[in-house]
Amino acid sequence: GGVVQATPHMVKGHITPDGQPKISRETYAVFIQPKWDCVMQEPKGAGFEDIFRGSESDKIPPLSSRLKATPVGFGELLNQSHLIYYGYNNPGPN
Who's near 34: CB < 8 A, 6+ residues apart? Predict the structure, then answer.
């Protein structure tokens, strides 16, 4: 899509049998020493809207639902992404 692109991949989801507790599987890239306070923003010469150019999938929470403004700290974006992914995969009360 836009300036920020993910590597295409697929994770097979778990189907919870009726009456069983809901579970979800969350997967993210893990870095040995992330810079939690690293400030991220669009590349030089690109605008905020360029980040989302192209189509976003409805199979996962789109980046535009998680990234509301730049610059943003890596840890802040990761935390917001986790909350939205969890809600996306676990709608309604648990």
Answer: 74, 75
Task: Report how far residue 22's alpha carbon sits from residue 15's, in angstroms, rounded to the nearest whole number.
Answer: 9
The C-alpha atoms of residue 51 and residue 43 are separated, in whole angstroms, by 9
Question: CA angle, 75 as apex, 23 and 50 as ends, to 5°?
Answer: 100
Rounded (to 5) percent helix, strand, coil in the chain: 25, 5, 70
Give the tokens for residue 74: 């890596």
Half-sphere exposure of 86 toward its Cβ, with a 13 Å CA cutoff?
Answer: 9
Digit-coded pLDDT (tens) for 24-50: 777 676 666 778 888 988 888 888 888
